[in-house]
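Supplementary Data S3. Sequence and C-alpha cells for construct A.
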Amino acid sequence: MDEIIDYSKIYSVSKLGMFEKCPKSYHFSYLDPIYSKMKNDLKKLPHNIFSFQTLGKAIHNAITLFYHAPVDQRTYEQLKEFLKQTWQSEVMWNKKPPLGEWGGFKSLDEEREVYSQALVMLANFLQMAKIEPEFEYLPTQDLRRSIEDYQNLITPLSEVFDISGKFDLVMKDDDSLNIVDFKTGKEENGDQFQLRFYKVLAEENFKKTVAKASFYFLKTGHKKEFDLEKQETEKIKKEILAKINQIKTCQNFETKPSKLCKFCLFKTFCPEKEKVREIIGDIKEEEYSEELPF
C-alpha cells in the first residue's frame, strides 16, 4: 500500500487479547514511548524465540502453499515438501535447517521432535480439510510479504477506529462464507470472540454473510464448527468497540503475572519481574515418529 498506515488506530484479535491478558504488556508494546520502539529488536533475541511459534508459522505457511498448488499436487508428499520450505526462522530467513536457537530449539533432538509433530499435524489436516474448496480468500503465497494480507484487510469500524487481521482461509459455501482457522496448540480451545471478530472483518471486506466458522485442531485431528448466521454483525461491532474503548479509557495499565509471562518480550522490564520469575516454567514437547529431513 502506498499510503501511510496509522497502525495505532487499527485493532486485531491479538491486540485486543493482549490487553485482556496483561494491560501492562499492552502498554509496553503499543503505548510506551521507549519500550514500544524496542519491540522489533527484542523479537530477534534468541531467548524471545519459541519453538511453538516456529511450528505454528511453518504449518500455516505449508497449508497456504498447498492450496496455491495445482489440485493434482495437493498430496501428503507435496505437503512434506512445503514444510521443508516453510521451516524457517522469523529472524534469520536465509538460515537452513536445523534452525537451532533461531527457531526456539534448545537441541537438535528437540527440533526433530517438533518437526515430527508438524508432520502429524499435516496428516491430520488432510483427513479433515477439503482438498478442492472454493475460495473467497486465500493468504498470499509470497510468505515474506504476508504483512500485505493484513494491510489489504484494514476495515473501518467507526469514524475513529479500524480493524484488521489475517484469515487462514475463507471458503464459499453456496451464497454464504465459512471461515476456517487452523489451531496448532495442545488444547482444543478456541476463542469464539475471534470468530465473531472475523465475521465482521469478512463481511465488511467480501460483502457476503458469514454463516459458519470452523476451528481445525491439527494436533488432535478434531474439528469444531460454529453457526454464526444468527450472530448480528452490528452487535459484534459494538462488542469490539467496547473492548477498544476499555483500552482507550484505561488509566492504570496493571500487571497480570501468569505463565504467559514466559512469552512476553518485556518480562525483564516488568515491575513484577520477581513474581514473574517464580511463575514461569519450561515448555515440554511431545514425541512423535521420526521422518525428518535433518
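Construct B, processed identically:
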Amino acid sequence: MNTDVKTPNTSLVWIAYLAVFLGVCGHASSEFFVKLSGLQGAEISVWRFFIGGLALVLVALLNPSSRNLLAPLRQDFWPIMSLSIGGMALAQFMFHLALDYASIVQVATLVTTMPILVVFVARVVEGSDITVPKLVSGVGAFLGCVLLLTDGYLGQLDTDNATLLGIALSLGCSGLGALYIVLVRPYVARHGAIRMTTYTFAFGALILWCVVGIAWGSWVDPFTLMDRPAVNAGAILALGVWNTCIGFILWLWGLGNIPDAARGNYLFFLKPVIAALLAVFILDDEITWIQIAAIVSIVGFVAAEVFFDQLRALLR
C-alpha cells in the first residue's frame, strides 16, 4: 500500500475532478485536429511535441513555482526521463501512428480501455482495491463507448491484416498510458504537474525528432509552420497548445490530487461522448437514438463510480 499519497480536502478533490474533466475535453478533440493537420502520424507527433513542449517550457518559466526546471532533474533524473520518454511520449507516438493504420472508431474504442487498465495497474503498484463497483461501472462504461462509437454496428470494428498493426499500437498506447498515470502520481505531487508535463513533451520532442527523421526520413523543420495552409497550421497549433499544453497540465494535476487515480480516470470514458457532442454542435452531424442511449449509459456509469460514496451514504 502506498502511504505517501495524502488525501486532499473535499474542495480540492472536486476542483481536481473538474481539472480532469477539462483535460479529457482536450483529449476528446485531438483526433479532430490530427485529421485537420493533413499530416501522417509520425510527423504530426513531432509537430505536437515541438509546439506543446515549447508552450509548456514558456508556461513553466512564467510560473514562479515551476520556474526551476533543473532541481527535479537533479533529484529524480532517471524516473523522470523514464516516465517522460518511455511512458507518455511513447504512448502518444503510438496513438498518432495507430491512426495511420486503423480507423478513428477502432483507435478511439481501444484507447478507452485505459481506465480499466488503470484499476489493475493501481492494484499492483499502489495496492488499491479492485471493488465490484469499479469493475461493473468500468465494463459498463466501456461497452457504452463501443455502442456509441459503432452506432450499434459492431461490424465497424471488423479488422483485416492492414489494421492489425493499428490495433496493436492502440492497445500499446492504452497500456503505457495506464502505467504512466499511476507511476507519475508521486512525482506530480513532488514536482508539480506543470514541470512533469513539460519534461514529457520537451524531452519527447527531441527524441521523436531523431526517431522520425532516421526511421521515416522526415526531418521536421518547426520554422516552416506558417508556410502551411492556414487550416493545417491552425490545427497543429491547437494540437500543441490546447490538446497538449493546457489539456495535459489539467489532466495530470487533477489525477495527482484525486485520492483514487483509478476512480478519477473513469472520466476518460467521457472522451467519445464529448467528441460526439462536438461533432453534433460544431460539425452539424446527426445523432441517432442508439448514440443517445449510449451517451446516457456512459454518463450514468461514470457518475455512479465518481459519486459512489455519496450514493451509498444516501441509500443508507
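The chain has a mean pLDDT of 84. The chain has one domain: 10-315.
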